[in-house]
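We treat protein structure as text, and this decision shapes the records that our systems exchange. We quote a single record here, exactly as it is kept in our systems:
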Amino acid sequence: MSDKQVSVQDYEQLPADPDKLAKWIDLDRERLNARMAQLRALKKLPDAAAAYSATLRETQDVAELHIEAERRLGAVLAAADRRPVKDKETGRIIGYVGKLAGVTKQTSAQAQKIASDPEAVAEYVEDAKAGGKVPTAAGAARAAQPPGSRKRKARTHHTEYWKELGPLLTNVRRVQVAMESSRQVPLGLRKFFKNLEVFGDYLASWDPDKLADCPECQGTGKRKAKSSDTQLDCPNCVNGGVGFYK
């Protein structure tokens, strides 16, 4: 096995076409999983220290290239026209995904997170390799947008409305439970609470921790005024975050 670092030539082998890049990522994920399985097998062998060390370094480089591929895909998706993703049962918007064939919502979200902070991702990769670990795309995504990130904190800071709506949603859920456990409920009342259930789903989409990037301002919270270059607050969202509103 070769003991090499990721080279310029390795990066140049990544497809430039977004659709081909997405397919490359899917295939490479399988190759990477096979390498990880081989690495785990070598770790269990008592006399395979040298082989394990060489395989580890090679796998780390392969993983680094894979993360770079997802970063590139994420940058393309973030810049592309995006379409809403709706819940099949309620019809409410639960997120947005780029219009690229074959790209799942999970891959899209992870790739865009990785692309959002390349410096944090690069630091994560270096730390993982220095610590004798294999960096992962999921780990890179967490490094780029960890829980409590600045974006989430900024949105949460502007969600005073949830102090009142949160308890209201809790009460709606309690009524739903009571309705389900009750044997005798008039049909008209059942229909009313069915509408209330849909209302509860709409309301839940505005939970500060569940807000999606606003499609009107691309998650920035700002929109350019029609008559000038002045940046105005986006009227559709909460500092770039949005629930169901259409």
User: Anything to note?
Assistant: The chain has a mean pLDDT of 78. The beta strands are 82-86, 93-98, 212-213, 222-224, 231-233, 241-242.
